[in-house]
Structure formats: structure tokens, C-alpha cells
Design a protein that fits this description.
Layout: H1 2-19, E1 26-31, E2 62-67, H2 71-79, H3 82-87, E3 90-96, H4 102-112, E4 125-129, H5 133-137, H6 161-165, E5 168-169, E6 172-173, E7 183-188, H7 189-196, H8 201-206, H9 211-223, E8 229-231, H10 236-240, E9 248-249, E10 252-253, H11 257-272, E11 275-278, H12 283-287, E12 297-301, H13 302-312, E13 331-334, E14 345-349, H14 356-368, H15 370-380, H16 387-394, H17 408-416, H18 428-443, H19 449-463
Parallel strand pairs: 1-3, 2-3, 2-4, 8-11
Antiparallel strand pairs: 4-14, 5-6, 7-12, 7-13, 9-10
Helix pairs in contact: 1-4, 1-19, 15-16, 16-17, 18-19
Length: about 475
């Protein structure tokens, strides 16, 4: 059985490589590299490795946690570091940046060597993202958080259902997360006042409440010398997360009408100067969020506001996060034209771990405990995966200085209820990446629309040979 699971990860790693181009003491090992690349190995048969009764194993002395940046490390150190002393373990973070699929490649190699690894060298915990979650939840290397780890249905009761569905296989939940990631539209207050005459979120929303009004506002922004969006990818998730069908059905790739609408809008914005022709994560895109940026707004989910936008908007990357530094306080949020979600990070326990008691306590503390969830949001402005905690903050006098005193948690709380996961597929990461990459060339004027579409199909079918047009 072990050989079959190993082969799944090996195939996924090989196919992705072809397409490369999303403690009380804690240590960390950083490995150069960095993106969220490799996909699952298609719809190949999977089986769980045979394993002994994990609850009866003697607990190891080192907990190895694999992740791609220090976000989860910071959450652990701030809210759960005492668990290392309680369990008598050393927590070691193996951090491999995402570029060129380095994180997944490194994790795949470690998991394929799991059985032969020394006890304290094994992967104990690894983190995954939504777009490639199924690769790992179906691989046999992620443990059932209820059956194997010991979390109860009561423990998980306040988590948003969609966060469970993303990592569930045949009714078994194979991971858990501290985040829920509904999306909003974050805009510059100063630009809104100048162009729209108001920066009030409710009034600004009236200018953005559907795509027709959004386009009309883009024209106004252009007339005042501003860009509506930064670049080609900014509105992508607002369209792709509202597709009427999965990317793949019965082995055939579908180009949903929402994807065509994204292409149409983006080309129009590019031709009319409504965007600044940047690409996601590029330095120019990040700069557009800062004090010298001329971009009205950005589609962002929860992590994007507290983690990415806030960092990019500071004049001094190492400066104090205070009003007056850069454009801190000049952003606000509204619902935007459509509900959507973007991203999120899930914690998985690795098959073969000898640290089940520690992992259970960590998962309980960081993904199930209402008071911890509430405190994370109050401290970091992240939106956490506990409905009761978020409703409490949404209905309070909470406000974000970064967002000019707005209680954006109330908006996120409503948006989270509208998330629809019914059209996710095993191929989401590859299709999302390939369609954006292929059409960058179209937006730049280097290929025709038909050529861009052909390039998309070619890239997807190289990554997933079992698919067809």
C-alpha cells in the first residue's frame, strides 16, 4: 500500500515540475525557493498507508512543521508556544518559500521518505493551501483530525462548513484551519473622497454593487487620473470563485462564462487604461498598494488585508504601524460586486507522526478554541475560523486603525456566509495558474485570444495528461 501512495506524490511532483513557470522553544529551518505549484496526480486511485495505532505511540521529542512562510510560525509562537513545554518537545519549523513549487517539492520528498526517516526527522505537521488541498488530503499522508487525532464534532462545531469541506474526503476531515477567507474590496479612502465625494463604505458600495457599476466607477477613476485596479489578475478570484461549473468535468476542461467575463473585463481595462498592467505579486503590484500608488482598490480576502495590504502600504517596511506612516488609515473595505473567497491555510497531521498528543492540543488551541480565535483577530485583524467569536466581534465596537476605524469583521462575517464551494475540483490550482499565465500574453498584446486559449490548454494538459479539451 505504501508504494501506491508514494507514487501519487511522485507523479504529482513530476507533472508540476514540467509545468513550473500559489516552543516554548521553536526553531526554524529556512530552505531557499518559493509558489504554490504542484497539483494532485489527477483522479488516480489512492489508499491510506497501513499504520499502527497512533494513539499508543510514544511521543517523539521533535515536532517538525513544514510551511512556506512564517505566518503560522508567528501564530504558534504567540498563542500556543506553551504546548511545547507541556509535552516536552522541541518544535522545528521547516520553512520553504513558494517560488517555482519549491515548498511542495520539498514536502513531497520528505513525505515519500517518511517511512524510512528517523523518528525525530519525520514530518509531523504540514500546511496546505486551498488550491492544492486535494493533492494532499487524498494522498494518504494526511491524518483524519477526528478519527486519528481525536478532535470531536463538538470541538469543530463553530468552524465554517466550507473550511471543513475543502479538506474532507469521503466525509473524513483531513485538516483544520484557524482562518476563514471571505473576500471584500479594499479601497483608498482619499481617492474615494476625491472621485466619489465620500469614503463611507456603505456609500462607496453603492458605486460598486454590481459589475456594471464597477465598470462605470472605473471610468470615473480614469478621468481623475487613477487606476481602478492594479493589473491583470486583481479581479480574477471574484470571477473564478463564482463559476457555474468545475474547471474539469469527466476529464474535460471547461472554460466557464465567468472566466470569459474576466478576460473581457481585463482586456477592456487594459486597453482603456483602467489598470496599471501589473501582475500578481510583482514589485510594481505591491508598490501600487503603497503611498505612491494611484490605484483605487484591490480585491482581497482576510489574509490579504491584515497580512499583505498592510505590509505593502507602509512607507517604511520596517517602520511602526501607526497612522501617518505611509497610507496607514487610508484604506477601507466594502462588499464589492460579488461574494467570493481567496486562499486560506490548513494544518494537516502527517501519517507516521509520533506526536499525536501535541498535535491534538495545538489544533484545539489554534483552530477550535473560541477565546484564542477571538484574540487572534483582535491582535492581528485576521478573520478566524470560529463563527461565534467572529459574530461577537462583528457586533461589538471593534475597529481597525489601519482601515480608518472600520469594523471590517462585520463585513467579513456576512461575506463568509455566502461562500459556495460546490464547484471546486482537483485541478483548481493548475487551471487557475495556467489561465492567468496564458492570458498575460494576450493582455500584453503578444498573442491573439485564440492563441492564448490554445496555450492555456497546452499548459494544463502537460500538467494533467489525463485531461482533454
Amino acid at each position: 500500500m505504501k508504494r501506491k501512495v508514494v507514487s501519487l506524490l511522485m507523479v504529482a511532483a513530476m507533472l508540476t515540475g514540467m509545468a513550473a513557470g500559489c516552543g516554548s522553544e521553536a526553531n526554524s529551518t529556512n530552505v531557499a525557493g518559493g509558489n504554490a505549484g504542484a497539483e494532485n496526480g489527477g483522479d488516480a486511485e489512492t489508499e491510506n498507508p497501513e499504520s499502527e495505532d497512533l494513539e499508543t505511540q510514544e511521543q517523539g521529542k521533535v515536532v517538525n512543521i513544514y510551511c512556506w512562510n512564517d505566518e503560522f510560525k508567528s501564530r504558534y509562537e504567540a498563542y500556543a508556544a506553551d504546548l511545547a513545554e507541556k509535552h516536552g518537545v522541541e518544535v522545528n519549523f521547516v520553512i520553504v518559500a513558494n517560488e517555482n513549487n519549491a515548498y511542495q517539492n520539498n514536502l513531497d520528498q520528505a513525505l515519500m521518505g517518511q517511512e524510512a526517516a528517523a523518528a525525530d526527522d519525520k514530518v509531523d505537521v504540514f500546511l496546505i493551501e486551498a488550491d492544492y488541498a486535494s493533492k494532499y488530503t487524498k494522498s494518504g499522508y494526511a491524518l483524519d483530525v477526528v478519527k486519528d487525532i481525536g478532535l470531536t464534532e463538538e470541538d469543530l462545531a463553530q468552524q465554517y462548513q466550507y473550511t471543513k469541506d475543502i479538506v474532507s474526503v469521503d466525509g473524513a476531515q483531513m485538516g483544520t484551519t484557524w482562518q476563514a477567507t471571505p473576500g471584500l474590496f479594499a479601497y483608498r479612502r482619499s481617492i474615494a473622497k476625491e472621485v466619489l465625494g465620500t469614503d463611507d463604505p456603505a456609500e462607496v458600495q453603492s458605486y460598486l454593487s454590481d459589475w456594471d457599476k464597477f465598470d462605470e466607477t472605473a471610468q470615473k477613476m480614469n478621468e481623475y487620473g487613477y487606476y481602478m485596479l492594479s493589473g491583470y489578475d486583481d479581479s480574477f478570484r471574484a470571477f473564478s470563485n463564482n463559476m457555474s461549473a468545475p474547471w474539469v468535468t469527466d476529464g474535460k476542461i471547461n472554460i466557464d462564462d465567468q472566466i470569459n467575463k474576466w478576460i473581457d473585463q481585463t482586456m477592456e481595462y487594459t486597453e482603456k487604461g483602467y489598470n496599471n498592467k501589473t501582475t500578481l505579486w510583482a514589485p510594481e503590484w505591491s508598490a501600487d498598494q503603497g503611498p505612491d500608488g494611484k490605484v483605487f482598490g484591490f480585491f482581497y480576502s482576510t489574509w490579504g488585508i491584515n497580512f499583505t495590504l498592510l505590509g505593502n502600504s507602509l512607507a517604511d517596511p520596517e517602520g511602526e504601524q501607526a497612522v501617518g506612516n505611509g497610507i496607514y488609515g487610508d484604506y477601507a473595505c466594502c462588499e464589492g460586486p460579488v461574494p467570493y473567497y481567496w486562499g486560506g491555510t490548513w494544518i494537516c497531521a502527517a501519517q507516521g507522526t509520533d506526536n499525536i498528543p501535541f498535535i491534538k492540543d495545538m489544533m484545539l488551541r489554534l483552530t477550535c478554541d473560541q477565546e484564542t480565535m477571538k484574540q487572534i483577530t483582535l491582535d492581528t485583524q485576521d478573520y478566524t475560523n470560529n463563527q461565534a467569536a467572529m459574530e461577537e466581534i462583528a457586533n461589538s465596537d471593534y475597529s481597525s486603525d489601519f482601515l480608518g476605524g472600520q469594523n471590517h469583521i462585520a463585513l467579513f462575517s456576512e461575506a463568509a456566509k455566502k461562500i459556495d464551494m460546490s464547484n471546486i475540483s482537483d485541478y483548481d490550482q493548475g487551471c487557475n495558474e495556467c489561465i492567468q499565465n496564458a492570458f498575460h500574453e494576450y493582455f500584453e498584446g503578444n498573442v491573439t485570444r485564440e492563441e492564448a486559449l490554445d496555450n492555456f490548454y497546452t499548459a494544463v494538459m502537460e500538467r494533467y495528461p489525463e485531461l482533454s479539451r
